[in-house]
Amino acid sequence: MTHDHTIRMKVNGTPLEVRTRPDRTLLDLLREEIGLTGTKKGCEEGECGACTVIMDGRAVLACLTPALKADGAEITTIEGLEQDGELHPLQKAFLDEGAVQCGYCTPGMILSAKALLDVNPVPTADQIKESISGNLCRCTGYTKIVRAIQRAVEGNR
Amino acid sequence: MKNTHRVIGRSVPRVDGHGKLTGKAIFAGDISLPGMVHLAACRSDRPHARILAIGTAEALGHPGVVAVFTGADIPGSNRIGRESPDQQVLCTDKVRYMGDPVALVAAETPEAAREAAALIAVDYEDLPAVFSPEEALLPGAPRIHENGNVLREQTLLKGDPDRAMKDADVVITNTYRTQMVEHAYLEPEAAVASFESDKMTVWVPSKYAHFDQRELADAIGLPTAKVRIVNTTVGGCFGDKTSLSPGYYAALAALKTGRPAKMVYTREESFIATRKRHPFIIHHTTGATRDGRILAVKIEMISDTGAYAASGPTVLTKSMIHAAGPYDVANVSMKVTFTYTNNPVGGSMRGLGVPQVAFAHESQIDILAKELGMNPFEIRKQNGFKPGSVTATGQRLGDSVSLDETLDRVRREVERIGTPPATPSRKYGWGIGAMFYGIGAGGRSNPAIARLEVSDGGAFTLYVGIGDVGQGSSTALVQIAAEVLRLPMEEIGLVAGDTDCCPDSGVTAASRVTYIVGRAVQIAAEKLKGLLQEAAAQITGLPAESLQLDGGSFQSPEDPPRRVSLAEAARMLRSKGFPLSAEGMYDPDFVALDPRTGQGEPMATYAFATQAALVGVDTGSGEVEVLSVVACHDVGTAVNPDSVTGQIEGAVSMGLGFSLMEEILLEKGRIVNPGYSGYFMPTVLDMPEMVSLIAEAPEATGPFGAKGVGEPALIPTTPAIINAIHTATGVRVTELPASPERLWTLLQSSPEA
User: Fold this and answer.
1) Inter-chain residue contact A141 with B22, CB threshold 8 Å
2) Which pTM does this prediction carry?
3) ipTM for the assembly
4) Which of A34, A48, A150, A55 has its CA nearest to residue B271?
């Protein structure tokens, strides 16, 4: 039952092979086995969105995703967004709009927004809000976060 | 006045933004040390009980368990409590609320630690328990602490309110009730500790590292100098995250096992174990003349401080200082009583009692305005503080008072936005709330120290004892230093919240950081600049006052100017044997409150604000949608306008939650909804359109005129929303939150609706 399983996946473009217990979540796999601690643990019950990553093009809650489900998957975490020292347009927009405060919700927010923009580069304000409606933020009141995503969208026009 | 500053008043990006945006910022839960043990606590499942025995054998035998500790294993005082040390790190004799820590398990994995913690068998003798402050005050009520159930009682008397009340044309009396709420920062509490070469290092998110250092050292049993607290990135705090953090347990386990130790609270534990916003019952009487002049206010308040004192005394004091609102009232009396109960512990939460009292005083003035047929802005302007007004504690205000401007600007925006027409099922209305809020601790010293160093090479590093809790203080403090030194911000390094190398800057609380720590930074930077300027004067042979600092060098007035770089000046200082650093200290003036009359000058300066909310109320369901909020805050000088509006927007969401949905539900001391699935907080879909405005009435004692905004931003939101519900429906909500159930019930019995 508790034998380790081997999971093959691509994380931020890098192919990885990880051995893990079958009862692990993708969140623990990323944070503890792979050392990508940018993905945050906020509630472990799928309510806060802090653990959001992109798996095969969709935003998923890593705390509710069994690690075994990630076998063969392509995962993007917050660590995979900056390229050659250049912030991703969403990261840049969050910085410029003052959309970061404590920073704990930030990775999940950005990945929820990225999952939307990847399939819908010019979403409406309502679609933007919908995309982050599962991500709680206690600091910002969301106003600057929405504005930051809109700013990134401007760059897509 | 035109902004001639380089970085003050500019929305520069946060100094900690890049790390937080790329996943590189290190939160305590991200730290992993080789060989570390993982910890879990066994907490009381009884509200009030004597501990007869703690059975640890089964837990010790659980696979993966390294050790189990009880209070008897703690070499130190095992006592904590910043204002009254009435709480234990691990309870030895008695538990006083469901969540009180009884034992600690150290294991190879977090899972093993939690499983074993559940196997600890505590033999309790249940005691009669108390779940409300009214019960706590009854004669013969079970005693929660040896000295009884009253934490503190305080009175205030200004003028002759009994007589003035007789002269009043209108007297309005109401009782308001506020609920217990949770801070609910996204980062659950976490800490890692390591004990090496006789030195304990604790990595923990803290709002006051130096206090934690002293308290932890005493509680666990280590010399203070042998404890180093390193503040990790703080994933939100809102007043909590100090004292009895998991850092205390990690330190105990590291000391006893010799291995590094890590403890991370689950979300449920974060709800159960940590402190809450104090629920209040407020009896508020307002007497006014027919033309709207408030003659007298009489207030009696009682609050549930829960099982331990925590910051109860400070919350009590702050609620009293502000309970009459931002109005010049000649005759005021108050009596405030805080009682212990066997409920979760009341602590510091954004506004410390003032959001609660503002709900009452702003409801009262709204009722008064409506009864007199007056405009709600005008009645506030008529009674509101102006420069030179006198507060309920008898303090004459200085010049930095812009309440009028905030009222006028909000009014203009409200008139511009307008009110949608009602439909058969939906009614709309605007409501307003005003507030004042003292910056800094109330009626006591609260100094901050900051230190600025320069290297031989001219590199500057600022050291402050406090870490950024998310509000942007690190950025503001670097801005202040950069402004004094006329340098780009990137040229000033920052070390924050490390007790080994940073001075004690006091606590991140009371909206004091920009005002008090910022002033200390400004003083340190001016001192160091003065030393460097003297050195440059020696190099040039010119009088120091003739030299101008700009772009990294001192320049003489000649054309072309002679230049001495900061690095050259620093080397000159060094060669003369001067230290290449300077400290700044600031502790605002105050006059302590008289214990009987509550009269005094508790804070050196106050912030002022007005907010207005437009709500749509579904009369069929009682659901309230907040459509717009207009907020205008007098912050002295906005060091970083985006940070200020970010504080306002965030506070409005927290205030919206406080108004409409957030509530810790208790059943005989047990939290029924310990998690996000049962504790509802605003999401992006609940947020209104925001108009955030900044009024600037520079405060002479503040850095570049700055005051504070973190807590003030929250205070007017709830009364604005509740008053808007009244405007829309005619229903007066006097108990929070205005949940759909509660409002629907009120709507059923309202003739107007």
Assistant:
1) no
2) 0.97
3) 0.98
4) A48
